[in-house]
Amino acid sequence: MRIGIDFDNTIICYDKAFNKAGVSCGLIPEDLPIGKGFVRDFLRNKGLEEKWIWLQGYIYGTRLCDATIYSGFRHFLDRCRKFKIECFIVSHKTVYPYSGDPYNLHEAAREWVLNERLEVETYFELTKENKIDRICKLGCTHFVDDLPEFLSLKGFPPAIEKILFDPKNMHIQTYPEMLRCGSWDEIINFLKLQ
Length: 194
Known about the structure:
The chain has helices at about 15-25, 35-45, 50-60, 75-80, 105-115, 130-135, 150, 185-190; strands at about 1-5, 10-15, 70, 85-90, 120-125, 140-145, 160-165, 180. The protein is an alpha/beta fold. Helix 5 links the parallel strand 4 (about 85-90) and strand 5. The chain is globular.
């Protein structure tokens, strides 16, 4: 078994980081509910799409220290090590944000992985197609991602077990062709890593 794992919103949770940065930059009120989606929707509803795009680059480039690791992920890695299962982080993202300051998003993400001492081979690809190529080259038997549209992409190998990471239960009845797990503990149970 070789397991590929997406990075953004699968390993790293940005919910508190978006609220903290949004408040400190004067973009959102302090009493806005916690969550990246709430921040995005608030800014978009105010006609501030450009501010939303800027905020994403700012957080992904300089504020990853405010992001948290999803509960259970470290335990998942421990179980994989115990069973000698190889894991890889495979994500796609641009090197620089679409707007705002030219933060190196790949370097920032690699630094976060290093600071968290995850000790997992990490690959950041520029496109979804490159991400699929990398997953194939690594020989992944399973892939965990929070984006069902990525797992459903044409060209995604059908032999790879698709695991949809859905901690907010947004896709309960919409993607029957993939396993949906709401937590890393559920993934551990599914893979029989107890």
